[in-house]
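Technical annex, item 7. During the second reporting period the consortium partners agreed on a shared format for inverse folding records so that results from different sites could be compared directly. Each record opens with the tokenized structure and is followed by the designed sequence. A conforming record, contributed by the partner at site C, is shown below for reference.
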């Protein structure tokens, strides 16, 4: 199989599962690929180039390892890269940049996800959100792409990554959530409260507590429960943190959710369709 820096990790693994251990051997950061549920979530959204940046290694490191198991590695021409970049970045306007540095929050074990979601909820057109972090926020990118945001990632240094999000001119299709109740369609705004959801799904709520489970069991348990969740039911999850890596999976499977942070180590997650 011929691969290049834009080839998805999931494509490589699907072609040859032996690639998992080859990639893991490149950097300790990639050990998560050994866990099936995390592999499914992460590998499908990350290219070789993106993975190299996340792991602090080079694309050539990937090529060197993968070529030993039969992959034919092709380097893209610089003009090819420039064409892709220009096409992607032409939507960005830097007249109004809203900046959010999340490094201190993460150091203090505070998840910035809710704050970012509040910022992007009624985001002004022709404005750019700049997230300053130590790594590329792949799960966040996947979520905001579904909300009609373009993005650009700037790797300033090994521990400094700027991610820019720019809102398209199209209406945000997720500003209005549509949920089903007894076969009827009910439209509710994103400001719906947990009390509203509990009333709406009265008698149709499945509840699980994953706070005492070791990683990655919380995510595995939630995904398994969602597979078994009856139509018109809601899953209420008691979690110890906001599960960012879960959200792209929920978006992909057409679920909507509400996060309610009760206290440190106590988060309620309402998942519904």
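Designed sequence (site C submission):
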């Amino acid at each position: 199989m011929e691969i290049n820096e834009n080839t998805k990790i999931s494509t490589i693994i699907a072609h040859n599962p032996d690639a998992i251990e080859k990639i893991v051997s490149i950097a300790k950061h990639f050990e998560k690929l050994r866990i099936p549920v995390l592999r499914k979530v992460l590998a499908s959204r990350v290219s070789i180039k993106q993975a190299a940046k996340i792991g602090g290694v080079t694309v050539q490191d990937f090529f060197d390892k993968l070529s030993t198991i039969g992959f034919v590695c092709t380097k893209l021409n610089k003009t090819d890269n420039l064409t892709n970049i220009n096409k992607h970045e032409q939507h960005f306007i830097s007249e109004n940049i809203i900046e959010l540095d999340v490094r201190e929050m993460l150091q203090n074990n505070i998840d910035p996800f809710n704050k970012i979601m509040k910022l992007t909820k009624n985001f002004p057109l022709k404005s750019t959100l700049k997230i300053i972090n130590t790594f590329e926020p792949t799960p966040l990118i996947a979520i905001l792409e579904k909300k009609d945001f373009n993005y650009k990632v700037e790797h300033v240094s090994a521990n400094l990554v700027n991610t820019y999000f720019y809102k398209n001119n199209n209406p945000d299709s997720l500003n209005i959530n549509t949920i089903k109740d007894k076969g009827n369609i009910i439209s509710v705004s994103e400001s719906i409260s947990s009390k509203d959801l509990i009333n709406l799904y009265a008698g149709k709520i499945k509840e699980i507590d994953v706070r005492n489970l070791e990683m990655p069991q919380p995510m595995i348990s939630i995904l398994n429960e969602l597979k078994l969740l009856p139509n018109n039911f809601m899953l209420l999850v008691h979690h110890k943190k906001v599960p960012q890596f879960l959200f792209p999976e929920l978006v992909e499977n057409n679920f909507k959710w509400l996060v309610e942070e009760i206290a440190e180590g106590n988060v309620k997650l309402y998942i519904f369709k």
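Confidence is low (pLDDT under 50) at residues 79-91, 170-190. The chain is about 35% helix and 25% strand. All partners now use this format for quarterly exchanges.
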